[in-house]
Design a protein that fits this description.
Structural class: mainly beta
Number of helices: 0
Distance between the termini: 47 Å
Largest sheet: 21 strands, mixed
Number of strands: 23
């Protein structure tokens, strides 16, 4: 890692870079530990990482015709990207360091968003590209119109949406909502959680403990797979309109009438599973 001081007196870290100091930009400002940080470039690849400082630093990796400005606003700071009309198609790469507990708002029209190590409320979205996040906690809102969304090692109130892309949530827990139109939903839980998962034409696959409230798994023309650890200990309400149902959880090997309660293991919190044209497959992994 090479540390380069920009003319503003701030320091940014460019991993593996051999750029001269004149080729790098860096802007920054002091910010409280829970400040609101807003960054809304048009096209960009952005990494937003939490650090243990009460300041916001934004660095540019590589050369770009865009310019950055940081201004104060009520409750936080806003980062502005300035570009000339002739540079509308430029796609710079930014590294943003913020206080871990800061409230983050990041939106991009086209590009890649990467988030890591944040404990404050996070809202990130893009129109076209991909969104990945790791080690977040608290209120988490992630969305993409066209492209996948992936979240790992995170806990909290999680809301993830994609119109045309897969949603993959690995090693997560909390209150989870995941909805996509033409992609799949794949969730692996590390602790008892409530889940609302929905896909119109893709599969829904859940592995882990469900509980602490009501969960719903829904798809129109995709399949639903639920893998429960141990004996499961939930109460299922299964409806397969034109598909079939496979149950393999202890004594629960035959589905009851659509919508009728089916205790699994010791029973417990309700889990409603609805598929209009796909297969519902529920198993307990002992």
């Amino acid at each position: 890692m090479r540390r380069i001081a920009a003319s503003t007196g701030l320091v940014i870290a460019l991993c593996g870079s051999s750029l001269p100091a004149a080729a790098a930009q860096a802007v920054g400002a002091a910010a409280s530990a829970t400040a609101l940080v807003v960054f809304q470039p048009m096209r960009a690849d952005i990494v937003v990482a939490g650090w243990d400082r009460d300041s916001v630093h934004v660095g540019v990796v590589g050369q770009t015709p865009t310019r950055l400005e940081v201004t104060s606003m009520t409750g936080g700071v806003q980062v502005f990207e300035r570009r000339e009309p002739r540079d509308a198609d430029a796609r710079p790469a930014y590294e943003v360091f913020v206080p871990r507990a800061a409230t983050i708002r990041v939106t991009v029209r086209q590009g890649i968003i990467t988030l890591r190590g944040l404990t404050g409320a996070v809202r990130a979205g893009l129109v076209e590209g991909s969104l990945g996040a790791d080690s977040l906690s608290g209120r988490i809102e992630l969305s993409a119109v066209t492209g996948p969304v992936e979240l790992t090692n995170s806990h909290g109130q999680i809301d993830v949406r994609s119109v045309a892309g897969d949603i993959v949530l690995s090693r997560v827990s909390g209150t989870i909502s995941a909805r996509t139109t033409s992609g799949g939903v794949h969730i692996t839980l590390v602790d008892r959680s409530t889940v609302a998962a929905d896909s119109y034409s893709g599969p829904v696959a859940i592995t882990g403990w469900l509980g602490g409230g009501s969960s719903t798994l829904t798809t129109h023309s995709g399949n639903i797979s639920l893998r429960l650890p141990g004996s499961g200990d939930v109460t299922l309400f299964v409806t397969a309109v034109r598909g079939r149902t496979v149950l393999a959880c202890g004594a629960a090997h035959r589905p009851p009438a659509d919508g009728a309660p089916l205790p699994v293991g010791a029973g417990g919190d309700p889990v409603e599973i609805v598929s209009f044209e796909g297969t519902i497959d529920v198993r307990c992994d002992r």
